[in-house]
Amino acid sequence: MDAGDVRRGRDETWPPGLWARFALAGVWVGVNDISFAIAVWTGLYRRASPPRILQAIAAGLLGPASFEGGRATAALGLFLHFVIAYGWTAVFLVALLGWPALRARVARPGWALGLGLLYGALVWLAMDFIVLPLSRARPAAVSTPWFWMQLAQHPFLVGLPIVWVLSGAWRRATAGKAEPG
């Protein structure tokens, strides 16, 4: 580690390209999750338009008034959706940076896959049982199909991309080195 690394707040645990991977994971998760919601609510249920779905996200901040805000609150909902996607990406990145044993595990593809699926399920459960109740939005009742659809899709469309993309930086950095125990 040289003086430049210290000034940039970087040490040897930060592989090259980490911030690009962070950006990619956040976008990928945001697009996956909103695409799923739009497909379900406009295609399967035929009960909402894409702007209405985005306004429902903004309702977490604005409450019911969100549905009267037109394009402005739909745009706010899209922005908030990506803030949340990047927030969950950041939570996993902080865990990776602070926990060497986690980095060692996700450097192995099988572990990255399993932890990604687990992380996605935990993200949905945290959203529905903690984040949404603290907002002005309504959480999904466990008795509704939407709750179970979200629990089924989050491991694949949220957790897996976050863990796979971020851990790929460590897989590349450890390629050719002895595998951790």
What is the CA–CA distance across the termini? 25 Å
What's the structural domain tally?
Answer: 1
Tally of DSSP β-strands: 0
Low-confidence stretches: 1-11
Radius of gyration: 18 Å
Estimate what percentage of residues fall within beta strands: under 5%
Number of DSSP helices? Answer: 7
Overall shape: it is elongated
| Portion in helices | over 70%
Outline the biggest β-sheet.
Answer: none
Task: Write down the secondary-structure element order.
Answer: HHHHHHH
Mean pLDDT: 89
Structural class by secondary-structure content:
mainly alpha
Task: Please describe the topology of this protein.
Elements lengths: L2 H5 L10 H27 L5 H13 L7 H29 L1 H7 L2 H26 L10 H30 L7
Helix pairs in contact: 2-4, 2-7, 3-4, 4-7, 6-7
